[in-house]
Amino acid sequence: MRARPTGKAGSIRVYQGFDFFALDGPVRWFCRTITPRRSMPRLPAVKRFVSNTGVRIYRIACQAFAGLTVRAYLLLGAGPPTLVDTGSGRDHSTEQLLAGLDAVRTEFGESIGVGDIERILITHGHVDHVGGVADLLPHTDALVGIHPLDARVLTAFRQRSVLGNRRRLAFFRRAGVEPELIEKLNAAYAIPGQKTDRVPVALALDDGVQLDGLQIIHTPGHAPGHVCIAVGDVLLAGDHILARTIPQLWPESTAPYNGLGHYLESLEKIRRAGPFTIVLAGHEPPVDDVPHRIEQIENAHRRRLGRVVDAVAEAQGPLTIADVTRRLYPNISGFYLVLALCDVGARVEYLHQRGRIDVANLDEIENEPDPADRYVGTGD
Ligand SMILES: [Zn+2]
Ligand SMILES: [Zn+2]
C-alpha cells in the first residue's frame, strides 16, 4: 500500500525492518513516519526487572535502524553475566548498547562492564538481534550461543544469504509475481553484507537446554532457529510474541521451520511452558497478560486465514498468491509488497497443507517449466 501520508511536512517514510508487517493494524504499524533528526533519538531508559528466581534483568534499548528500536537484555544472577541479543550493529546501535551497559553500572550500581559479559545468547538470526555480535566480541571473550538452525547467520552468512535468495526467488515465481517485478522485489529485500561471517558459535541453543537456570525453548516460525528464553517467571521472547504487532511470517518454502504452522505450534508451546508473569520481547513494551496476548495473536491469524479462504472462494477463477495479495492489500508496493507476498504465501501454504484450498492447474505444473500455482476453494 502506498502508505497514507500520515507524516508532517519535512518527515520521511522509513522501513521498519523485517519483523513488522501488521496487516490487521492501521497503516502506521507497517510504515512509520518519522521526522529526521540530527542527533541520536531519545531511547527508553534502561529498565530493571527481577524474575521470581532472583535474576536481575536489565532491558537496554538501541536503534536497530531508523524507526526501529530493538531491545537487548543483560542478565545478572543466572550464572555468568549474560547478554541476550546484540542490536543490529548498524548506525549507533552498538554505541547505544554500550551506553546502556554503562548505565547498568552507574545508575543501578552493578559492577559490570562489557568485558565482564561471558555469554551472548541470540534469540534468532535476524540482523536487528544478531548484527551487533561482531562489534562486541573485540571487547569480551564471551561465548556465543544461537540455535543451530540460525547459526549460519554467524558462521557462514554468505551461504545462508545466497541460498535464501534462491529460495525466495523460487517462491516469487511460484507466487505468480511478474518477472520484471521479481528482480525489483528481491533487490528491495536484499540484506547488505553482514559483519558476522566468522563468529564461532560455542553454545547450541537447542530446545530444552538449561544454562544456569535459563531454559531454552525452541519457537520456530518467525525464524527457523528462533528461541525464547525462560528466566523463572519471565520470558525473553525475541520476536515470537510482541505486545502490539503480529510478527512477520514467511512461507516454509523459503526456509525449513519458517511458516505459520510452526509459528502457531510455537505459540502453543509457550502457553504450555508458562505461566509467565511477563514477556520481555525484542521490540515494543512488555506483555503482562501473556495468555491473553497469545489468544489475540491466534485470533488475528484465524481472521487472516479466513480472508484468504474467502478471497479464493469468491474469485471467478483460480488465483495465484500474488493475486490473493493484491485482492487483500490492493495498494501495497515496494518492500511492503515483499512482506505482504511472504505473509500471504505463508497463509496459502498453511491452508493448502491442511486441505482447505486446492491447486487447480496440475497439468500446467506437470508440463510447463516453473508455472505459478493457482488456487481454488475446495468446494466445501
Ligand atoms: Zn526483531
Ligand atoms: Zn525477527
Question: Could you walk me through the main structural features you see in this protein, from its secondary elements to its overall organization?
Answer:
The chain is of the alpha/beta class and 380 residues long. The chain has a domain at 47-165 and 194-290: Metallo-beta-lactamase, Chain A (4-Layer Sandwich), CATH 3.60.15. It contains 11 helices and 16 strands. The protein has helices spanning 93-108, 127-130, 133-136, 152-155, 157-174, 179-189, 260-273, 290-314, 321-328, 334-353, 362-367; strands at 12-14, 32-34, 47-50, 56-65, 68-76, 82-84, 119-121, 143-146, 203-204, 210-211, 214-218, 227-231, 234-238, 278-281, 357-359, 375-377. The strands form 4 sheets. The protein has a 7-stranded mixed β-sheet. Strands 10-11-12-13-14 form a 5-stranded mixed β-sheet. β10 and β11 form a beta hairpin. The longest helix has 25 residues, at 290-314. Residues 18-19, 124, 126, 222-223, 239 line the site of one zinc ion (ZN).
